[in-house]
Design brief:
Length: 124
């Protein structure tokens, strides 16, 4: 069974994104559009802009093997909680570049849009 991602982050809430990630919504974001509209998200649109980042979190192989053998839901929950805490911390530190009235500077926004995908070994 193919697992779908889940929307998260304060930016996702602001854009009305919740629950399962749909390809058309994801592609709209990549193309600087608010999902379901033709409205641009950012003022500037550079040809070679960075549209996102890919973070990959993994547990040690021994934990993966343990989960494959036991399906221990308590350990899965601990991993999920650690991931959520990490992403909350990442989001709190999210910044944007400000280019108004002089030199570039960074400003903390404290919000982002992200989709999380959990990958499990085949057959589990």
């Amino acid at each position: 069974m193919r697992e779908c991602g889940t929307w998260a982050g304060k930016g996702a809430e602001r854009l009305g994104l919740a629950g399962q990630v749909r390809r058309e919504d994801f592609m709209a974001l990549v193309n600087n559009k608010a999902p379901g509209t033709d409205q641009r998200i950012t003022v500037r649109l550079k040809e070679d802009r960075r549209t996102g980042y890919d973070f990959c979190f993994a547990v040690p192989k021994s934990v993966s093997l343990y989960l494959a053998e036991t399906g221990d839901k308590a350990v899965e929950q601990m991993i999920l909680e650690a991931f959520n805490e990490t992403m909350t911390d990442v989001e709190a530190r999210m910044e944007t570049r400000v280019r108004i009235g002089g030199p570039d500077r960074d400003r903390t926004t404290g919000n982002m849009v992200y989709a999380s995908f959990i990958h499990r070994p085949a057959g589990l």
